[in-house]
Amino acid sequence: MKESYDFSKGERGKFYNQNAEFELPIYLEPDVIAFFQNIADINGTDIQSIANEWIRTNIDRMATVKN
Question: Whole-prediction pTM value?
């Protein structure tokens, strides 16, 4: 690492995007990954699609129980 850096030609906010959306990583335990991966393999799809479908289903179930 340098002793100092020259930011005199830097431009504040050059890469700022007010409308940027970020996707948060979700870390699953190995047994949960294996479960979803098995279902994904059986259905010929990817683990992300299976996990999202399962989460959406459970969100709907939770919403009906809450009301």
Answer: 0.58
